Hints:
CATH topology of chain B: Metallo-beta-lactamase, Chain A
Radius of gyration of chain B: 18 Å
CATH superfamily of the domain at 27-174 in chain A: Ribonuclease Z/Hydroxyacylglutathione hydrolase-like
Oligomer: heterodimer
Mean pLDDT of chain A: 85
CATH class of the domain at 27-174 in chain A: Alpha Beta
Largest sheet of chain B: 7 strands, mixed
Number of strands of chain A: 12
Number of strands of chain B: 15
Shape of chain B: globular
CATH topology of the domain at 27-174 in chain A: Metallo-beta-lactamase, Chain A
Low-confidence stretches of chain A: 1-13, 286-295
Amino acid sequence: MGSEAPAVDGVDTAHWDSFEGDRHQHQSAYVLADERSLLFDTLSPASTGGALDLVDRALDGGNLDYVAISHPEGNHAGNAFALLEAHPEATLLVPERGAGHGPGFGAEHDLFHLSAAPDAGEGIGNRIEYVAPGDELDLGAFRVEFVPAVYADHAFSVWMVERTTDTLFPVDWLGFHHQAADCVTFADEKDRAVTERDVAQFHGNVFPWLQFADPDAVDARVEEVIEAHDPDRIAPAHGSVIRERPTEYMRMFKSAAREISRQGTPERIRERVEATFPREDERDELGTGETGADR
Amino acid sequence: MTLRRLTDGVHWLSHCEADGERHLHLSEYLLDGGDGYVLVDSGSTRFRDDIVAEVNAVTDGAGPDVVVLAHQVLPHKENLPAFEAEWGDLEVVTAVPRLGGLDLIADVPGFTDIIGVSGARGTVLGRPRDLAGRTITCTRPLLTDVTVSQWLFDHDARLLVTAEAFGHYHAPGDCLKTSADLDGGVDQRHVTRFYRDKLTFLDQLDLGKVRAALEALLDRLDPRYIAPIHGTPVAGEDADAYVDSVLAAMDVSDLEARPVE
């Protein structure tokens, strides 16, 4: 993503200038390996070969025992079948139930073909297990526990905690963009510190519902997450690994949610609706009355 | 055959999955532009043969000219390769992320590869476009779960197609019914269960803002039908009651007093 701030009516892009070079967004997966090994998420199908290679390098000749998928979205689960074919000994771990107020539609997993690669004709031979919050795995030096995904997009989602290092893996939560030179640095190593504005921009994209958020309710939920996990490290899918002051980042999200929620006031929504769908007598005035062109 | 003509130029391909006594629609909509056809969503491979047969029946074997994806999760996009094998090259229009957050729309290089729909064209949201003879505006969903999603409004038929987060389950036997065919409209229990199952953030919403947003959109569009990918089409005259039902479903302030069946 380029850092040059384009002129867009009504959008504050000024802070993009504070990035040197291109703006990037992480797409991360994590390997935990000791006596047993686990891969958490599988990266995008746009980079299948690269994902397989990276996993092999991380395993350093060892076996892959578990492939855990946080949720069945392409950029998180898209290499699952390739990885399982490459590692027939690996067990696929997928969320057992929805992360919301209901258990989830029971047949939904079938729609993601967890037992058969599309067009393959035959199902994969790997073992499949469903995981729920509270389920634990002993990997040797590492002990992972699956925990509720408080901030998730797809309902069938799960977060993970590693107890030895107290690392929280919050998947789509707590991401932020970084400069091109900072792709493999930790958050505390960056020349350009992560700002509240960065966190707001990322989450405005990822969780559109935040425009309708009750900020006080978000504050309360974030504090519950902090109390429940109080991690030493945070390893998100779309942001750099946070090793210092993790709760500060979690509380940045509260400010971000408050800012994004201002986009969803009845007045702002009405303006957007009227601009998108002008009546005949409003079209010339708004300059949006053309039809038929690919703009 | 699970095909029903919904209104002039609009065909509803009603497919669904069963989970006990609940069914979940995975519908597609085929829009007749006179000289061509727009297919909204490609559906699951599980229903591929039916979808191809139904599209062929309507298009006399020509297939669609344009496929618009509500979003890129597997059951919505996964028939694209088979469709191209069946009907040749298709124009595929897909949602793109809102780069930088908030209101800015822009293309992200390689994004369609990242989400597994190589060759698709990113939608330009919020502007009417001619797609195969239909005037269609793609818009950011007011409610969604999966981030990169779009709703679309077909101006010709006043059809508002909604994807995730504006749907509901249905009972076995009601798979081809619209709200107008159901005594009492869409069953509140099916709406409530859907929202509790699908949306993880209900407890953090300001429902007054959600209601105002839904009413602003529907007042402006006055749709003849709200056509969910995951629900029974809702006739325009039932829209107000449906919004009430959706708001009731999203209220999780006192779950013990109002458990969902």
